[in-house]
Automatic annotation (TrEMBL), chain B:
This is TRAP transporter large permease protein. The keyword Membrane applies. InterPro entries: DctM, TRAP_DctM. It is a multi-pass membrane protein. Residues 7-417 form the TRAP C4-dicarboxylate transport system permease DctM subunit domain. Keywords: Cell inner membrane, Cell membrane, Membrane, Transmembrane, Transmembrane helix, Transport. The keyword Ligase does not apply. It is found in: Cell inner membrane. Pfam families: DctM (PF06808). Belongs to the TRAP transporter large permease family.
UniProtKB/TrEMBL annotation, chain C:
Coiled coil: none annotated. Part of the tripartite ATP-independent periplasmic (TRAP) transport system. Keywords: Cell inner membrane, Cell membrane, Membrane, Transmembrane, Transmembrane helix, Transport. GO terms for molecular function: transmembrane transporter activity. It is a multi-pass membrane protein. GO terms for biological process: C4-dicarboxylate transport. The complex comprises the extracytoplasmic solute receptor protein and the two transmembrane proteins. The chain crosses the membrane at residues 27-47, 62-79, 100-121, 141-159. The keyword Cell membrane applies. Belongs to the TRAP transporter small permease family. This is TRAP transporter small permease protein. One of its GO terms (cellular component) is plasma membrane.
Length: 301, 426, 189
């Protein structure tokens, strides 16, 4: 009859939220009701940096967070976060489901966390209020809002555009008023933040295809019997399938909605963009271990 | 039981006179200890609750307000307003309101406004035979105009608390008509009270003098256009506009009016640090308190309770207004916005209320709470300037409460008052 | 301000108070410098984006860090100068003896909360010390240092008030409207 509390910054009904609820149902079933999961969605318990610290110290039990906030804690997570590291969503899923994914999950243990599973966050691409972008030359001089992260700043600058780090909450107004020309995100966020109302040009450059992580507090994990630990781990794995189903449906729904609202979607030749990332990789793959991990990812079909 | 500890400790300490920040902090700390959770979460939320970039609007607008007072921008606006409406019955009351309206267009904080306009007007009013209670009440109510007219730090806080998806530029625009309506209702009320008390009129100084005072006030008033234009056209964000207000105030007072000495600057800085840290410490501990409310599922309970009463949007808005007025008597505005918005906004949008419209309702409603004891920051400031107690002010504030409630009703049930102007700017 | 006049029989306490008074002044000055520096940083951010057409990634994070410092320092100064806003109405009607007891309770609460800020602040520093603040390349623990510093000062200042009241100094004014916030002088334009 223990309730495992889980944090998520996404709203109720979002694929990650629903997947964790699904996992909770499985756990409840398989432990005969001894354990259940309660999801605190919509960042009720704080932003990801906060909830990660809460998970590490056992304030809450489970946490679904994006990879970015872990980069400063678990160095291995920085590699899949690098721009253009994965060629496609399929390749990303293949890599993270395999031994490379398991290695990264294990790396969380040294930081009071137990890595349970990787979820999808789709592919992030650029959108803007000005024009269709179909080549790297079109990006030149445009102001894109990025999250407060050096990798994103360096990526955007390496592409010849101007990175403007800005709080998420200011983006809509900033697009509307022209403080920035564009921003970047995946389809569902582009839709839910209503940025498509003001930014009518979307370019599928898929610069970041990064998985999200479901972690458990080491303190909560250690309270489970080995049998229950196995149940939790398996339920988490099972929820990934559910998550991807929901994600793909959500992505299609969002894309259809914004296209219907008049957003023009452009394709772009990705190779020149990937080539422009050389200095970025040199900067962030700072140790032989990280270089090796990147090479293994890229070598996976 | 957890909820009893959380709210019980808060209420008991509050009545014991413990500073609000520590009431919120101690109640959260105690509840977390009772729950057996690691208490560090209280202090994590304390720190992260005051770490949003948008919250910088608070220190910036308070600092800018202090500089405008010390540097003479406020005085010149008051003189100009005096030449315009001083000759009406109870003229200094009208001057107070017009000055507050003009100053409200450059000031983002009601506290700064009460200190600025009240500091100049209340002593003059008392000297001319106005009752101190009248002077204080007109000042404290007129200061609320600054909340509605852009710029407004509280609208920025509302936008963050609402998840950051509400356009601040729209909120700023939406506040203009309600702000002017509120100003008009206060002028009418002030006029009738002044007439019944037989207050004097001032001499009309002649159009030449009005023009001269207008020219003198222009450099300060230009900030209205700079801030509103700057935010709408995208040169800077709303939060950054509060920083621009400081730079502009410095520029005008140092180079145009040449009235800002180094000592004034140091004084203004210290004053702003004191006020800001007091307000933001409350916002920080309110974040810990909110975290516990979320953890204990208070919003879910509240929505369930509300649904049990009614699902009619008109009734829901009425109930929320009453609830916010009640809560607003006990709590300061910033923390209230941070605590209430995440709970109420999903509820009203569920019933089809526009988030921008609800923002204006929230700001006006909780603004009235700044003038209601036991916790009424603006009223405290005005009373302090007028050197009377809150109880003395309360004796004759009722006509002004009446006027604000009428405006609140109009703003609540006629969405166009808020939403028409933003739709024009689209 | 709030420390009142010092009686001759409390000489050691007067010396301690003099030291704390200087610490308090220092904290207020540091906080003021922090606020001015924050203003300059944000102004530079606007200038840089609008005029230089490039946005530095470190300005926002460092401006927030400065804000944390000056809030916690200023909040501690507020404990010594007794300007934190509370609901004083009940104190107004109570007899003097119970009023003193409630004031004592408030200071004990401040002391306890200040202690929590230090103790759990240190734990948070420890927890995040090996992480990295992305835009600044600093250990994550730096985020929580203002919390600890403010906590230390709040403990010192509230302990001082408790000791002063204990030794019979009159440090509690009635609801004193005269020094709620700093008021501007009245000038004719
Ligand atoms: Na205003
Ligand atoms: Na109130």
């Amino acid at each position: 009859d223990t309730v495992l509390r889980s944090a998520d910054t996404h709203p109720d009904g979002y694929p990650t939220v629903e997947a964790v609820k699904y996992m909770g149902d499985l756990i409840k079933q398989r432990t005969n009701g001894r354990y259940s999961v309660e999801v605190y969605h919509s960042a009720q318990l704080g932003e990801e940096k906060d909830t990660i610290e809460q998970t590490q110290t056992g304030v809450i039990d489970l946490n679904r967070a994006s990879m970015g906030p872990f980069n400063g804690i678990v160095p291995e997570t920085a590699v899949p976060s690098l721009p253009y590291m994965f060629r496609s969503v399929e390749q990303m899923r293949h890599v993270m489901d395999g031994p490379i994914g398991d290695d990264i999950l294990k790396a969380f243990e040294a930081h009071d966390l137990v890595g349970l599973a990787f979820y999808d966050s789709g592919a992030r691409s650029f959108y803007n209020t000005k024009k269709d972008i179909t080549s790297i030359a079109d990006l030149k001089g445009m102001k894109f809002r990025v999250i407060q992260s050096d990798v994103f700043v360096d990526m955007v600058n390496a592409l010849g555009a101007n990175a403007t780090p800005m709080a998420y909450g200011e983006v809509y107004s900033a697009l509307e008023t022209g403080v920035i020309d564009g921003a970047e995100n995946n389809w569902p966020s582009f839709e839910s933040a209503k940025h498509y109302e003001v930014a009518k040009h979307y370019t599928t450059d898929q610069h970041q295809i990064v998985p999200e992580v479901l972690v458990m507090s080491k303190a909560s994990w250690d309270k489970l019997t080995p049998e229950d630990q196995a149940i939790v781990r398996q339920a988490a794995k099972d929820s990934v399938v559910k998550m991807r189903e929901l994600w793909d449906a959500q992505e299609k729904k969002s894309r259809d909605l914004v296209e219907k609202a008049g957003v023009k979607v452009s394709e772009i030749d990705k190779q020149p963009l990937i080539d422009a990332m050389k200095p970025v990789y040199d900067k962030y793959l700072s140790t032989p271990e990280l270089k090796d991990l990147a090479a293994r990812i890229q070598a996976t079909k | 039981m957890e909820l009893w500890i959380l709210f019980g400790v808060f209420t008991l300490l509050m009545f014991a006179g413990t500073p609000i920040a520590f009431c919120l902090g101690a109640a959260s700390f105690g509840t977390v200890l009772y729950l057996g959770l690691p208490p560090l979460v209280v202090f994590q939320q304390l720190k992260s609750g005051m770490s949003a970039f948008s919250l910088m609007a608070i220190p910036f607008f308070i600092f800018a307000g202090d500089l405008m007072v010390r540097g003479g921008i406020a005085q010149r606006i008051v003189s100009f307003a005096g030449s315009l409406v001083g000759h009406v019955r109870g003229g200094l009351g009208q001057v107070n309101i017009i000055a507050a309206t003009l100053f409200g267009g450059i000031s983002g904080s009601a506290v700064a406004e009460a200190a600025a306009v009240g500091g100049l007007m209340i002593p003059q009013m008392k000297a001319r035979g106005y009752g101190a209670d009248y002077a204080v009440n007109v000042t404290s109510m007129a200061a609320l105009i600054a909340l509605l007219l852009p710029p407004s730090q509280n609208m920025i806080i509302y936008s963050i608390a609402g998840g950051g998806k509400i356009s601040i530029a729209d909120l700023f625009t939406a506040g203009i008509l309600p702000g002017l309506l509120f100003a008009a209702s206060l002028m009418v009320t002030a006029y009738f009270v002044a007439r019944s008390r037989g207050y004097p009129v001032e001499q009309f100084p002649g159009f030449a003098r009005v023009g001269q005072l207008a020219v003198i006030a222009v450099p300060g008033l230009l900030l209205i256009g700079i801030i509103f234009g700057g935010v709408r056209s995208g040169i800077f964000t709303a939060t950054e506009s509060s920083c621009i207000a400081i730079l502009y105030a410095l520029l005008v007072t140092v180079f145009v009016y040449r009235s800002m000495a180094w000592g004034d600057f140091v004084h203004a800085t210290k004053g702003a640090v004191r006020t800001t840290s007091m307000v933001l410490l409350i916002i920080g501990t309110a974040a810990s308190f909110s975290w516990l409310m979320a953890y204990l599922k208070v919003p879910v309970l509240l929505i369930a309770g509300m649904n049990a009463i009614s699902t009619d949007p008109l009734v829901v808005l009425l109930l929320l207004n009453v609830l916010m007025l009640l809560l607003g008597t006990f709590m300061d505005m910033g923390p209230m916005i941070i605590i209430c918005t995440p709970i109420f906004l999903p509820l009203v949008t569920h019933y089809g209320v526009d988030p921008v419209h609800f923002g204006v309702i929230t700001i006006l409603n909780l603004g009235i709470g700044l003038n209601t004891p036991p916790v009424g920051t603006v009223q405290f400031v005005a009373c302090a300037v007028g050197k009377i107690t809150v109880w003395e002010a309360m004796r004759s504030i009722w006509p002004f409460y009446g006027a604000s409630l009428v405006v609140l009703g109009l703003v609540t049930y006629i969405p166009a008052i808020s939403l028409w102007l933003p739709s024009v700017f689209k | 301000m709030a420390t009142g006049s010092v009686k001759s029989e409390t000489q050691p306490m007067a010396r301690v108070s003099a030291v704390l008074s200087r610490i308090c002044d220092g904290a207020l000055y540091l906080a003021g410098i922090g606020m001015v520096a924050m203003t300059a940083l944000v102004a530079y951010q606007v200038f840089s984006r609008f005029v230089l057409n490039s946005s530095p990634s470190w300005t926002e994070t460092s401006a927030i860090m400065l804000m944390n410092w000056f809030i916690f320092l200023g909040a501690a100064v507020g404990v010594r100068e007794n300007y934190h806003m509370g609901f004083d109405v009940l104190l107004y009607v109570l007899p003097k003896g119970s009023k003193g007891a409630l004031r004592m309770l408030s200071d004990l609460i401040a002391l306890g909360f200040g202690f929590g800020m230090v103790w759990y602040g240190c734990k948070l520093v420890g927890l995040t010390w090996h992480t990295i603040i992305p835009a600044l390349e600093l250990p994550g623990g730096f985020d929580y240092l203002p919390l600890v510093a403010g906590g230390v000062l709040i403990c010192l200042f509230s302990a001082e008030r408790i000791a002063q009241r204990w030794s019979g100094l009159d440090i509690d004014k009635d609801i004193n409207l005269e020094d709620v916030p700093e008021m501007p002088a009245v000038q004719e334009a």
